[in-house]
Amino acid sequence: MASRKESTSVSSTAMASTGGTLDSPVKQIQIEGLVVLKIIKHYQEEGQGSEVVQGVLLGLVVDDRLEITNCFPFPQHTEDDADFDEVQYQMEMMRSLRHVNIDHLHVGWYQSTYYGSFVSRALLDSQFSYQHAIEESVVLIYDPIKTAQGSLSLKAYRLTPKLMEICKEKDFTPEGLKKANIGFEQMFEEVPIVIKNSHLINVLMWELEDKSTVADKHELLNLSSSNHLEKSLQLLMDRVDDMSQDIVKYNTYSRNLSKQQQQKHQYLQRRQQENAQRQSRGEPPLPEEDISKLFKPPQPPPRMDTLLIAGQINNYCQNVKEFTSQNLGKLFMAEALQGHN
Amino acid sequence: MSRFFARSDSESEESSSDDEITDKAPGATFKQSLLLSDDEEDTKRVVRSAKDKRFEELTNLIKTIRNAMKIRDMSKCLEEFEQLCRAFLKSKNIVDKEGIPPFYIRLLADLEDYLNQLWEDKEGKKKMNKNNAKALSTLRQKIRKYNRDFESEIAAYKENPQESADEEEEEKEPEDSGSSSDSEGEVSSKSFLKKKPEAPSEATKFLKTAKGSGDESSSSDEDDDDGDWSPSDTGSSSETSDKEEENALKRKRLVTFLKVQRAQDTEKPGVRKEERKKKPKQKEQIEEEAEEEGGWEKVNRGVPLVKEKPKMFAKGTEINTAVVVKKLNEILQARGKKGTDRAAQIELFHALAAIAAENNLGQGILVKIKFNIIASLYDYNPNLAAFMKPDMWKKCLDCIDELLDILFEHNNIFIGENIAEDSENLAVSDQPFRVRGCILTLVERMDEEFTKIMQNTDPHSQEYVDNLKDEGRVCGIVDRLLTYLENKGSTEEICRVYLRRIMHTYYKFDYKAHRRSLGLQGETKSEQDQEESKEESKEESKEESKGESEGEDSAVIMDRLCKFIYAKDRTDRIRTCAILCHIYHHALHSRWYQARDLMLMSHLQDNIQHADPPVQILYNRTMVQLGICAFRQGMIKDAHNALLDIQSSGRAKELLGQGLLMRNMQERNAEQEKIEKRRQVPFHMHINLELLECVYLVSAMLLEIPYMAAHEFDARRRMISKQFHHQLRVGERQPLLGPPESMREHVVAASKAMKMGDWRTCHSFIINEKMNSKVWDLFPEIQRVREMLVRKIQEESLRTYLFTYSSVYDSISMATLSEMFELEMPTVHSIISKMIINEELMASLDQPTQTVMMHRTEPTSLQNMALKLAEKLGNLVENNERVSDLKQGIYGGYFNRDQKGGYQQKQSYQRDQKSYQQKQSGYQRGGYRNQNQGNY
C-alpha cells in the first residue's frame, strides 16, 4: 500500500511537471498522508456509486509550495436539512480545530469523482470563488474507482489565470471566449502532488511491506474487466451527445446571425440608394434610424458549457487512454512471460 | 240570465238541505231537475272532455270582452282579448280537429265592427280617458292583424249573420218553454241536450263560488273564473237594458257550444235521462263526500284533475269504452304539463284500468290503458339522468308482464305504433282489437331503465344484488316479447328484440354448457361429435329440467339470433352490435378462432371509429375479451395486439365504459360528464381491469424480455410495449425493493427474473397465491391457463437465456438446457432451431453430441458501445463541419460534401449492420476516416 502510494505520488509528480511550468503562486503541493487517508475514508463511509463527497482542505503556503496538513469533510446534503448553513459549519469547524492546535488556514477543497467526471459548472464556480478569495486554493480530485483498482488517483487542479479573467467578467459569449483565446486545454492547470509522511510512518510502511504476503501483489497483473471501459464509454457518449446538441444550437445561432447580417446589409444598401435618389432630387435625406433596434441580434448561446464539456471529454479520453495503455502493457508483459516460459 | 242565476243560487242553497232534494227529485219540473242534476254535476265535471273545458274558457273570456265592450272599457277589453288569443292558441289542437268555433269568429267580427265604430266616433274618442284611447288604438291594430288569419270565416259570418240570429231564437224558445212548463215530456230531447252541458259549467262554477270561500284549495283557474263571473253578474243586474242582450249573448254562446258538443257526443239522450233519475238518490252521499274532501284535501295549484281524483266517473255513469277513452284522453292532456302530479296521474290510470276491468270493457281498452300507465311511469322522472325508484320499477315490470299476459291470451289484439288514434278499435266486437302503441319500445325503454338503475346503484351494496335479481325478470320479459313478436312482429321489430336478447346474453358465461362440454370432451374428442352431443344433451337437459329458464345453450341461441340479424337487419347499427356481441360471446367461451374470424370478416376494425360511443365501448369490450381469450389459448402475440390499443392509452377504464377518469374532470363540463355517465356499463358487466392489465403485462413480458435480450445493443431498438417498459422503469426507480405486493410488482419482479433466464423464480412470481386470488382464479379454466403460462415462461426464459449468455458459451448441450428449463428435448431442439433459422442466434446444432455450437460472432457489449460512440462522433463531426462551413461562408457547399462523405458513410454503416463481422471492419474504417477528416 505504502509503496503504491509512493509510486503514484512519483508518477503524478512526473505527469504534473508539464503543468508546473505555468506561472502561478503554487508550484507544488505537499499532502500529508493523514489527509489522503481521511479523504479515502470519507468517501468509503459516505459516498456510494455516483455520489460525490466534498470537504475542506487546511494547510499553509510555504514559498511556492502548498502544504496540505489536514482536512475535514462536509456533511452529506439531504433535502431534509435545507436550512443547513455551510459557512457557519466551516467557521465552527475551523475554530474548533484551532483550539486543538491544528492548521486552520483554508487552502482549498476536495471532491470525489465518478469515472473522472468532475469538469462541471458547479466545480468551476466553486473553485472560482475559492481562488477569488484565497489565491492559493486548489481542488483535490479523488477518484475512488481507480484507487480501488490499485493505483491511488489524487489530482490537484487550479483554474488558469485566463479562466479566472473570464469568470470574473462573466463573459461567456463566443466572442468573449474567442478574445480570451481559451480552449478546453487551458482551463485547468494541474499542480504536482507530493505525499509526505513522517519518518516513523515510512519505517512502519517498509516493515509492513516486508510482512505482507505475495498474494496481494498479484492484483497488479489483474486485467481489469471491460466494465470500467464500458462505463467510461457510456459517459463519454453522453457528453458527446451534449456536445452535438450544443453544436447544433451554435449552428443555428450562427446561421441566424449571418442571415440577419445579410438583411441588415440589404437594408442599409436600400437606404443608401434612396438617400442618393433623394439627394439628386434635392430632398433632405431620410432620418437615421437605430439599426440595432430594427435588427435585434439573436441571443448567442453561452459557450462556457461547451467548453466544459470539451474539457470533460478530454478528461474521459485521457482516462481511457491511460487505462488501456496500462492494460496493454500488462498484456504484453504476459505475452512476453509466456514466450519466455 | 240573472233570473237563471238567482234560481240556481237558491237551488244550491236548497241542495244543502237534504230533505228537499230527495223530495223534489222524482217529481220536480224539468227546470228543477235540471238544476238539481246540475248541483251534483261538480262530480260530473270531470268527465268533460278537454274540448269542453277549452271552449268554456273561451266563452267565458268572450263574455267578459262583450261586457267590457258594453261599458266601453277599452283597457279591459284589450287585456281580455290578449287572454283570449292565448287561450285560443292553447286549444289549438282541439280547434284543429273541430274547426274554429263559430262563437269565436262571431266575437272577432263583432269586436272589429265595434272598434271601427268607436274609431269613427271622434267625439266619443275625445271623451275617452287616455288609457282607454291608447288601448283602443292598440286593440284595433291587434285585431286587424289577428283577423287576417280568419278572414274567410269572418267574411262568411258577416254574410250570414242570420244563422246566429236563428240560433238565438231557437235558444230562447226552449228556455222559455222549459221554465214555463212543468212537465218533462214537453221538453224536446234536443233542448234537453242543449241545456244539459250548459248546466255543469255554470252550476259548478256557482257552487264553487258558494262554497269557495271556505275552500281555499280551489285552484287558480277557478279563482280566475270566479273573478270573471262576478263582474258580469253585477254588470247584468245593474243594467236592465243590457239584460236582454246579455241573455242573447249567453244563448248564442251556449248554442255554439252545444253544437260542437253534439257532434262529438255519441251517447243517446235516453240513456242520460235514465241516469238522471237515479242520481238524486246517490247525491246525498256524494255531497257529504264532496264536502268532507273539500274541507280537507290539499291540492297543488293548477292541478284541477287531482282534486277530483277519487271520483273518476260520476256514479252511475254507464261506463263504456267511449267514456273510458275520453277519460283517458283527458288524463293524458295533463301529461307533461307543469305542475301535473305525475304520481297522481299514474294512480288515475290505475283506477281507470280497474274500472275498465270491472266493467268488462274488453281487453282492447285495458291494453290501451296499460300502455299509458307504462308510458307515464317512464315519464315519472323529468330528467334523463334520474332513475326509477324501486317501487316504480316494480310496478313497471308488473305492468309490462300483465300487458304481455293479455297479449298472449288474446290473439286478436293488434298493436302497432302506426295505427292511428282514429282507427283504433277498442270496443268489444267481432273485429280484432286495434290498439295504438308499441310494446317493443316499451320493453326497450324498460331495459334502458334497468341499465340506468344498475348504473346508479352502488355496486358493492346489497341493493345492487337485489336489483340484479330483477335481471331475470327483465330477461323473462324480453324472452316473452321475443316469442310474441316472432309470431306477429315485422322483421325489423324481430331484429330489435333479438338484439335486446343478445345484449342480455352475450356477457354471461354459460357455465352449464361449459360443464357439459367438459364432461363430453372426455368421451368424444372430435368437435363435430361434441357439437352433436351438445345438441343431444341440450335436448336431454331440456327434458330433464324444463323448469330451468335456459335449457338451450347460450351459444346456440346467440348463433341463431345473430344469424337472423345478419341476414335480415337493414340498419347497420343493430348488425354491428350483434356482431360484436357474438364475438364477445365466442371469446368469452374460448372459441378463439370463431371469434377472430368473425372479427376479421366483419372489418369492424376499419370503420369502428365512425360508430357512436356506446358501440365503440362495446367494440372495446369485445377487443379486450378477444385479447383475454387469445391469452387463454396461449396466443400471446394476438393477445398483446388485441389489448395494445386499450392499454397503451392508459384510459382503459374510460374506454370500456367502466368509470370516469379523475384527471379529465377539469376538461369536461357537467353536461359532458352526465353524457359520459350515461354510457357507463353496469357493474355486473364489467371486465376486471386488473385481470386485463395483468394479461396485457404478462403477454408483454413474454414478448418483450426475449426481444430485449436479443437486441440489447441495438441503438434503434423499438419498444414492443411502452406500458411494460414504463412499469419496469417504475420498478427500477424504487429505492428499496421489498417483496412484490401488487400485481404489477409481481410482473416486474418476474420480468427481472426472466431477464436472467431464471424461469423458476419468474414462475413463482407470476403464479402464486396472491396472483391466483387476484387474477388467475377469474378465468374459467384456471388449470389449463396456468399450465399454458408455465410452459410459455419456460420457453421464453430459454430463449432469453440463450440470447443473454450465448457469448459466454462455446457450446452448450441441449440435454443441459432441457434439464435447466424442464422442457423436453424436442421442444428445446425446435426452439433453438427456430432461433438459428431466424438468425437470432449465431450458432449451429451438432447432431451427434446434441450440442449447440456458438459461433461467437456477436460483438461484445464493449464493442457495441464503441460502435455507438463512433456513430455519435460521426454526427458530431458532421455538425462541426457545418459550423466551420458556415464560418467560411460556403453555403450549400457542405450539402454536396455531405452527400459524398458523411451520409454515404452512414448508409454503408447501416448496410453493414446486417452482418456483424463486416460491420466491424467496415465501420471502423469509416469511423477513423471520419475522425481524421473532422478532428485533425
TrEMBL record, chain A:
Biased composition (Low complexity): 259-270
Domain MPN: 29-163
Keyword Transmembrane attributed: no
Swiss-Prot/TrEMBL keywords: Cytoplasm, Initiation factor, Protein biosynthesis
GO biological process terms, semicolon-separated: formation of cytoplasmic translation initiation complex
GO-annotated cellular components: eukaryotic 43S preinitiation complex; eukaryotic 48S preinitiation complex; eukaryotic translation initiation factor 3 complex
MF annotations from Gene Ontology: metallopeptidase activity; translation initiation factor activity
Domain of life from the UniProt record: Eukaryota
Region described as Disordered: 259-305
Localisation: Cytoplasm
Gene3D superfamilies in the cross-refs: Cytidine Deaminase, domain 2
Keyword Cell inner membrane on entry: no
InterPro entries: eIF3h (IPR027524), eIF3h_C (IPR045810), JAMM/MPN+_dom (IPR000555), JAMM_MPN+_peptidase_M67A (IPR050242), MPN (IPR037518)
Pfam families given in the database record: eIF3h_C (PF19445), JAB (PF01398)
Subunit structure, as described in the record: Component of the eukaryotic translation initiation factor 3 (eIF-3) complex, which is composed of 13 subunits: EIF3A, EIF3B, EIF3C, EIF3D, EIF3E, EIF3F, EIF3G, EIF3H, EIF3I, EIF3J, EIF3K, EIF3L and EIF3M.
Annotated function: Component of the eukaryotic translation initiation factor 3 (eIF-3) complex, which is involved in protein synthesis of a specialized repertoire of mRNAs and, together with other initiation factors, stimulates binding of mRNA and methionyl-tRNAi to the 40S ribosome. The eIF-3 complex specifically targets and initiates translation of a subset of mRNAs involved in cell proliferation. Component of the eukaryotic translation initiation factor 3 (eIF-3) complex, which is required for several steps in the initiation of protein synthesis. The eIF-3 complex associates with the 40S ribosome and facilitates the recruitment of eIF-1, eIF-1A, eIF-2:GTP:methionyl-tRNAi and eIF-5 to form the 43S pre-initiation complex (43S PIC). The eIF-3 complex stimulates mRNA recruitment to the 43S PIC and scanning of the mRNA for AUG recognition.
Similarity comment: family membership: Belongs to the eIF-3 subunit H family.
Protein name: Eukaryotic translation initiation factor 3 subunit H
Species whose genome carries this gene: Oreochromis aureus (Israeli tilapia)
Lineage start: Eukaryota, Metazoa, Chordata, Craniata, Vertebrata
From TrEMBL, chain B:
Chief place of localization: cytoplasm
Binding partners and assembly: Component of the eukaryotic translation initiation factor 3 (eIF-3) complex, which is composed of 13 subunits: EIF3A, EIF3B, EIF3C, EIF3D, EIF3E, EIF3F, EIF3G, EIF3H, EIF3I, EIF3J, EIF3K, EIF3L and EIF3M.
Keyword Cytoplasm found: yes
UniProt domain PCI: residue ranges: 683-859
Stretches for region Disordered: 1-27, 156-295, 520-552, 897-936
Location in the cell: Cytoplasm
An example Gene Ontology molecular-function term: translation initiation factor activity
Composition bias type Basic and acidic residues, residue spans: 1-10, 262-274, 535-549
Pfam families (UniProt xref): eIF-3c_N (PF05470), EIF3CL_C (PF26569), PCI (PF01399)
SMART domains named in the record: PINT
Family of this protein: Belongs to the eIF-3 subunit C family.
InterPro entries: EIF3C, EIF3C_N_dom, EIF3CL_C, PCI_dom, WH-like_DNA-bd_sf, WH_DNA-bd_sf
Function in brief: Component of the eukaryotic translation initiation factor 3 (eIF-3) complex, which is required for several steps in the initiation of protein synthesis. The eIF-3 complex associates with the 40S ribosome and facilitates the recruitment of eIF-1, eIF-1A, eIF-2:GTP:methionyl-tRNAi and eIF-5 to form the 43S pre-initiation complex (43S PIC). The eIF-3 complex stimulates mRNA recruitment to the 43S PIC and scanning of the mRNA for AUG recognition. Component of the eukaryotic translation initiation factor 3 (eIF-3) complex, which is involved in protein synthesis of a specialized repertoire of mRNAs and, together with other initiation factors, stimulates binding of mRNA and methionyl-tRNAi to the 40S ribosome. The eIF-3 complex specifically targets and initiates translation of a subset of mRNAs involved in cell proliferation.
Protein name: Eukaryotic translation initiation factor 3 subunit C
Gene Ontology CC annotation, any one: eukaryotic translation initiation factor 3 complex
Alphabetized PROSITE patterns for the sequence: PCI
Compositional bias annotation for Low complexity: 177-191, 229-239, 915-929
Signal peptide: none
GO biological process assignments: formation of cytoplasmic translation initiation complex
Gene giving rise to this polypeptide: EIF3C
HAMAP family: eIF3c
Acidic residues bias spans: 11-21, 164-176, 218-228
Keyword annotations from UniProtKB, A to Z: Cytoplasm, Initiation factor, Phosphoprotein, Protein biosynthesis
Keyword Cell cycle among UniProt keywords: no
Family matches, as PANTHER family: EUKARYOTIC TRANSLATION INITATION FACTOR 3, SUBUNIT 8 EIF3S8 -RELATED, EUKARYOTIC TRANSLATION INITIATION FACTOR 3 SUBUNIT C-RELATED
